[in-house]
Specification:
By secondary structure, this protein is an all-alpha fold. Helices cover 68% and strands 1% of the residues. The protein contains 20 helices and two strands. A two-stranded antiparallel ribbon has the order 1-2. Strand 1 and strand 2 form a beta hairpin. The chain is elongated, with a radius of gyration of 28 Å. About 6% of the residues have low confidence.
Length: 509
């Protein structure tokens, strides 16, 4: 009667079930000293994340701060009687408020247990932090301070420190066993008793942080958040069951998973969250690649220099750090636009690292990458051809209209569509030339012709040149590879001839 229905609960309940099952399976193997060592090493990083999270929940980054005079007026109107605001609201909101405040300050109890502080110290530290948070609420026009939160924070920290200490005191005598949990779809997963505690805990902490951030992002997304949540959960499950899916999923979604025209979000969009979810799961479900599987030092040096270049460029744009305001993440003229540009390289490097891990143990990893890229290419071509039919006419090559495809960022210019087509077409040529299936050759040839048409109707001379170079290099590379040279030469000749047959008339037009 007093509850509320939320689609986000599907994610949070599934996450809670997973964490509960994980703790139940591995709880008896936890060692107090190992846990303390792990958490001590990660204290500063976790504390920084925790304090930022508390500040964000308190509204430090989303509310407009008022003057001291306005804060004084707000304080005079504050009711100091404990649980006053809990009484004059619904049962659901009162319970939600109490539980959320308790959960917010419970980590302080864990911190006290890790460093050996007394429960009184934990309670005092929680009261101090809660006092800062509640005082800050006086400076917000739409919120009010609640002194009761100091009492709840103190009790939460004290109770958590007591419960954690009692948990380990009751499990300290339990014998450790070397259990192995067998995953039918992947390599064996050794239980915490035999695996590296720091590695396991780091994976789970990363998974939890990524899930929590994704859920927070979805809760504030303006366009179909429930459908997006379903997509993210499905991709995460697929990546967990078979991590090699990620190698095809990401390039397939790259050109078409773009909701910016409807949402207005382009600094941190849905494709970023898809990358976050799938890459975190992929790294958690794979082991580092052997040193022999790492590519040449020259490539690593090139990527390293590129990272340094991006880091310097980003620092030049951000220093001195500008003040945050309503336009910080809504305009391309913001200095923070450098972060939007730089994140692409960061995602690419992370994807390369995961690809190396998976390719070291999956011989067909490049096939997955090629198929994923080809699927994204096919979707891009379909959208582009439809756009040309609607706005310029399929055979009207004298029109001034230039196709833009599914790339929303092209509204500020740039070579997004022609750059993508030139980068993706070698994968299509690879699959078409290497296959033994005549049906796949015919379908690949048809898609190559349609891709050529889509590229030509962008009316980009630089795109024409890049596409020609990409096609020539891809055809030569596939010809040089092992196998029947005569058959491949015939297929390549047909592809080259039909590609020119499409390109030349449009170019002359």
């Amino acid at each position: 009667y007093t509850g509320s229905s939320q689609g986000l609960s599907v994610i949070t309940r599934a996450l809670g079930s997973y964490v509960g099952a994980l703790l139940w399976l591995h709880g008896k193997h936890l060692d107090e000293q190992q846990m303390k060592i792990i958490l001590k090493r990660a204290t500063f990083a976790l504390a920084a994340i925790y304090l930022l999270g508390v500040a964000a929940i308190a509204g430090w980054f989303s509310h407009q701060w008022q003057s001291i005079d306005a804060a004084k007026v707000s304080f005079e109107q504050t009711r100091l009687l404990p649980f006053y605001y809990h009484y004059y609201t619904s049962e659901a909101r009162a319970l939600t408020s109490a539980v959320s405040i308790a959960a917010m300050f419970a980590p302080i109890g864990v911190l006290a247990w890790v460093w050996g502080w007394s429960r009184f110290t934990a309670a005092a530290l929680a009261v101090f932090l809660a006092l800062i948070i509640e005082t800050s609420r006086l400076f917000f026009a739409t919120t009010h301070a609640d002194p009761t939160n100091l009492l709840i924070a103190a009790f939460a920290a004290w109770a958590t420190a007591s419960l954690v200490a009692r948990l380990f005191s009751s499990t300290a005598a339990a014998p450790a066993t070397n259990d192995v949990i067998t995953d039918q779809t992947g390599p064996p997963i050794t239980a915490i008793a035999t695996a590296s505690p720091s590695l396991i805990s780091r994976k789970h902490i990363t998974l939890l942080l990524a899930t929590g951030f994704s859920a927070y992002w979805l809760a504030n997304f303006p366009v179909q958040p429930l459908w997006l949540a379903t997509v993210f959960v499905a991709c995460a499950v697929a990546a967990w069951l078979k991590p090699i899916f990620i190698v095809a999923l990401i390039p397939a979604a790259l050109p078409v998973f773009d909701l910016a025209p409807w949402s207005g979000r382009y600094f941190l969009d849905e494709f970023d969250i898809l990358l976050l979810v799938t890459l975190v799961v992929g790294y958690a479900r794979s082991s580092p690649a052997p040193s022999s599987a790492i590519s040449s030092r020259l490539l690593n040096l090139t990527l390293g220099l590129l990272l340094v270049s991006f880091a310097i460029s980003t620092a030049r744009a951000l220093i001195p750090l500008p003040a945050l305001d309503a336009n910080s993440f809504t305009s391309y003229f913001s200095s923070f636009n450098a972060l939007r540009i730089g994140k692409g390289l960061v995602w690419a490097i992370l994807f390369i690292g995961l690809y190396r891990r998976l390719a070291a143990r999956t011989p067909a990893a490049f096939q997955w990458l090629a198929w994923g890229t080809t699927l994204g290419l096919a979707a891009t071509v379909i959208i582009t051809v439809r756009e040309k039919a609607l706005f310029g006419g399929l055979l009207n090559f004298a029109s001034d209209y230039r196709a833009t495809g599914p790339f929303s960022a092209i509204h500020i210019g740039g070579a997004f569509i022609e750059g993508y087509l030139a980068a993706a077409v070698p994968f299509l040529i690879f699959l078409t030339v290497r296959t033994q299936s005549w049906f796949q050759r015919i379908a690949g040839s048809a898609l190559l012709l349609a891709t050529t048409y889509a590229l030509m109707v962008t009316v980009s001379r630089n795109g024409f040149a890049a596409y020609a170079v990409a096609c020539i290099v891809a055809m030569l590379a596939t010809f040089i590879g092992g196998g029947s040279k005569i058959r491949r030469a015939g297929v390549i000749a047909v592809l080259a001839g039909t590609t020119l047959a499409v390109a030349v008339p449009i170019f002359k037009g």
